[in-house]
Structures are given as structure tokens and as C-alpha cells.
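Please fill in the sequence for the structure shown.

STRUCTURE ENCODING:
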């Protein structure tokens, strides 16, 4: 790479990379401290309200130590989000969650390496490099005879080691070498969170690119649409998707994951493990579960993006976006044509209504008085009482259809008569949940019973003091429901 190319690349990264931005931000030490404390391998996602509350507590503690932090926690979190240090995603119950971006993870790991440098010139690291070089050389050798000879030599070395161990010739492994190997394993694993974040960001970028391609590029619409309707998952077929799918499949191999778990448990019980720090032992124990959780999360995101892309194509949303895109292009084309005859500062005889209310004078504003919303009636305090377990069970039962009861009712009628319709089940066992019991029987019948003609049958159920009547399709239950 030439000096000019390197300089241009560095300038682009300075403008685009969140890692560079985080390293040179004004309050970089504060951002490192707060983000590093609130996000970890065990806690990759934090709800918005919880994060702001925790950041506020951290800021108060930092201010007491002399740090000048004039803004509130909410403003700092917003600025970190705008700068690309944080990623905001939807959570459960409409709750937003935050997680570190891949750039922030890279910057945090860089600072950690500066604070606690790792010795990479170790026997374990060299052995790993040599082994990978030899394995790659053997696997890519076009000469089959040389590959067979290399494998036979490796087999001979393994047989010799087995024979030596069988004779009792045990070579003790130096504890420092074992500690170095464990540290190298953790060093490699420490890069996985940012790799997962980078894969997720790449998948989202591909998804946005495909959507833009569908809307903006008429020539590509046919091929993309054909692939989607044929069931081809374009995200999974991308380079990032294929690499991740191979990694995820390896983690889902139960035999291999069980073997890794057993290896880690046995390794942590040996003497050299006592020389590891508590954090290192915890990281080793959580190594595989952490990778599995992160991998499952990315797999879920990839599946959700693929389904979202198919819905986008199959719904009216694509047509609406195309219409908006055409209008924007038409407007921009007309603006470019007008720019050749009109100056930007030319006054036009055109009036547009404002989207808000224009305040002519501050005295016209009506200020909010909090006392207007206060009530003069004192609050009535009710003493808490013990919960009625039977009432709680009844409330839970009333909130959803009791399919267990309905299934037992159908099976008992089948035991007595051999077959039954919905009306016969309700005659034998009245609808204890009202119309919910009738709906539950219809749901079971549509999937497990057989249609019995086109003539509907009448059913009835009690709703309070009133008896309700309706007609439902005739289904015949003939086999017990398991």
C-alpha cells in the first residue's frame, strides 16, 4: 500500500469508523469507563431505562472525583448513540435496549490491551501458528502421496506418544506453559464479541442494500424478486451469512459442544488453573455458553431480516416505497431543471402553510401551572391483604382457553361413545369458560377432527344468567387426542 493510499484510507476511517471516533472523543476516558462497566461478555444488552439510571450513578461518582461532566446521562447516551458507539434495538414489551457497536468493542479491546498488555511471544502461540501452517500446507497439497505421507507421519507420532504413556513415561507439563495456553485461548475468544457485532452489522447493511436495490434499481428487481419468491435466503447466501452459518452449525453440534464442556471442567480442576485469575477462570467456564448465546442471537437476527425482506416484497410496502422514490426523483429532476434559470435566492410568489403555530409574542403563551392538576381530595390508603390463591387461579384460567380441560372432555366422550361432534361434547360437558370453550373445541376440531357434512350443528353455552345459541361447522372426533 502506497503512502497516499494509506493516508486516504486513514482519513476515511477517521470520518467513518466509530472506533476512531471513540478514541479521539473529548471525554474518551469517561466513555471507556462507563461503557466498559455497563456492558460485558455476560451482559451484552441493557434496557434503555436501566442504562440511563446506571450511567447517571457513574457520572455522579466521576464528578465527585473531579471530572467535568456538565451534561445529563440521557444526553451522553444520545450522543454515544449518534456517534455510533451504541446500537439501539427494539426489546420486549416495546422497551428499547442498547448494545455496543462493533467499533466500540474494537476501541474498548484496544484500551484493555494497552492497560494490560498480553505477551504474544509464547511457546503456545508459536505452536499454534506452526500447527496451523502445517495443517494448511497438508490440506492444500495437490499431491495425494505427500498428503498421505504427512498423515502417516502424524499417526506415527501419535502412536509413539501412546506407547510412551502406556509404558508409564509421563512428561509433566510446565504450569507456566499451561497458563500461557489458557491465556492464548482467552485472547482469541476476546475478539469474538466484536466479530459477532460486525457480522450483525454486515447483515443489516446487506438487508438495507437489498431493499434499496429493489426500490431504486429497476434492472435488478426481477432477479431479486425471483430469488426471494423461490425461497432463496439472500442474507444467508451472502459472504457474511455463509461464514456465520458454518460457525453456528459447528456450535450446534451436540457431540462437539459436550466434549468442549467436559474438557473445560477437567482443565479447571487441575493445578495450573489455580494460577489463573478469578476473571480468567470465569471467562473459561462461560466460553462456550457465551459463544452459543451470541451465535443464537445473530442467527435469530438473520432469520428475522430474511422474513422481513420477504414481507417487504410481498406486501404493499414495496409499492409504496417505489411510488415515493419516483416522486422524489421527479421532484429532484424538476429542481435541477429550475436551477439553470433560477438562482437559489430568487424570491418566489409562493406561500406555504406552516406546520406549527407561530407565536407572535411571549405574552400570548399560556404557561402550565402544576397546581391546576392537583386534587383537593386526600388519597385513600387501602391496607394490603393476603392474595386468595383460588381467586388468582380463576383469574389466570379466565385469561386463556383451557385446552387441557377441553382435551380431557373430548377423550372421555370418545371413550364412552367411540366418536363425538362438538355439540355432543358440549352436551356431556357444559362450556365452563363460555364461548372460550366453544372456540377451543373448534380449534381442536379443525386440526384433529374430520368434517362431517356441510350442514352446521347448533350449540349452546351459559354466559352469566343467559344461555347463548350458535351454529358451528360439523366435525367428527374419532381418535383420542394425545
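FILLED IN BY: designer on duty
SEQUENCE:
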Amino acid at each position: 500500500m502506497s503512502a497516499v493510499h494509506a493516508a486516504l484510507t486513514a482519513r476515511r476511517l477517521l470520518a467513518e469508523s466509530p472506533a476512531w471516533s471513540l478514541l479521539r472523543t473529548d471525554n474518551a476516558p469517561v466513555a471507556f469507563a462507563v461503557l466498559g462497566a455497563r456492558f460485558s461478555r455476560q451482559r451484552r444488552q441493557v434496557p434503555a431505562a436501566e442504562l440511563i439510571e446506571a450511567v447517571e450513578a457513574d457520572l455522579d461518582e466521576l464528578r465527585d472525583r473531579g471530572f467535568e461532566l456538565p451534561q445529563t446521562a440521557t444526553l451522553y447516551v444520545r450522543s454515544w448513540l449518534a456517534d455510533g458507539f451504541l446500537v439501539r434495538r427494539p426489546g420486549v414489551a416495546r422497551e428499547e435496549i442498547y448494545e455496543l457497536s462493533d467499533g466500540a468493542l474494537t476501541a474498548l479491546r484496544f484500551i484493555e490491551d494497552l492497560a494490560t498488555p498480553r505477551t504474544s511471544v509464547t511457546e503456545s502461540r508459536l505452536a499454534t501458528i506452526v500447527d496451523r501452517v502445517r495443517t494448511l500446507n497438508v490440506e492444500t497439497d495437490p499431491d495425494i502421496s505427500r498428503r498421505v505421507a504427512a498423515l502417516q507421519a502424524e499417526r506415527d507420532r501419535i502412536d509413539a506418544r501412546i506407547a510412551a504413556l502406556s509404558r508409564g513415561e509421563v512428561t509433566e507439563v510446565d504450569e507456566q506453559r499451561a497458563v500461557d495456553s489458557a491465556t492464548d485461548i482467552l485472547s482469541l475468544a476476546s475478539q469474538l464479541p466484536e466479530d459477532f457485532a460486525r457480522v450483525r452489522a454486515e447483515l443489516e447493511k446487506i438487508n438495507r442494500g437489498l431493499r434499496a436495490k429493489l426500490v431504486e434499481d429497476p434492472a435488478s428487481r426481477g432477479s431479486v424478486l425471483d430469488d426471494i419468491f423461490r425461497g432463496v435466503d439472500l442474507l444467508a447466501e451472502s459472504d457474511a451469512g455463509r461464514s456465520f452459518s458454518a460457525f453456528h452449525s459447528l456450535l450446534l453440534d451436540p457431540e462437539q459442544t459436550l466434549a468442549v464442556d467436559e474438557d473445560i471442567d477437567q482443565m479447571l480442576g487441575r493445578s495450573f488453573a489455580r494460577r489463573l485469575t478469578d476473571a480468567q477462570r470465569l471467562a473459561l467456564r462461560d466460553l462456550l455458553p457465551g459463544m452459543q448465546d451470541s451465535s443464537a442471537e445473530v442467527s435469530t437476527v438473520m432469520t428475522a431480516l430474511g422474513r422481513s425482506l420477504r414481507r417487504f416484497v410481498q406486501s404493499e410496502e414495496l409499492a409504496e416505497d417505489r411510488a415515493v422514490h419516483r416522486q422524489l426523483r421527479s421532484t429532484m429532476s424538476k429542481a435541477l431543471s429550475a436551477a439553470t434559470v433560477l438562482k437559489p435566492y430568487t424570491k418566489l410568489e409562493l406561500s406555504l402553510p406552516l406546520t406549527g403555530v407561530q407565536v407572535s409574542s411571549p405574552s400570548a403563551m399560556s404557561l402550565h401551572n402544576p397546581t391546576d392538576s392537583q386534587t383537593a381530595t386526600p388519597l385513600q390508603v387501602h391496607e394490603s391483604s393476603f392474595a386468595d390463591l383460588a381467586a388468582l387461579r380463576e383469574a389466570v384460567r379466565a385469561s386463556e382457553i383451557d385446552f387441557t380441560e377441553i382435551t380431557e372432555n373430548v377423550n372421555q366422550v370418545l371413550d364412552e361413545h367411540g366418536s363425538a361432534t362438538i355439540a355432543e361434547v358440549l352436551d356431556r360437558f357444559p362450556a365452563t369458560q363460555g364461548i372460550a370453550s366453544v372456540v377451543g373445541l373448534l380449534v381442536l376440531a379443525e386440526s384433529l377432527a374430520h368434517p362431517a357434512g356441510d350442514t352446521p350443528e347448533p350449540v349452546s353455552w351459559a354466559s352469566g344468567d343467559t344461555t347463548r345459541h350458535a351454529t358451528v361447522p360439523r366435525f367428527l372426533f374419532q381418535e383420542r387426542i394425545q
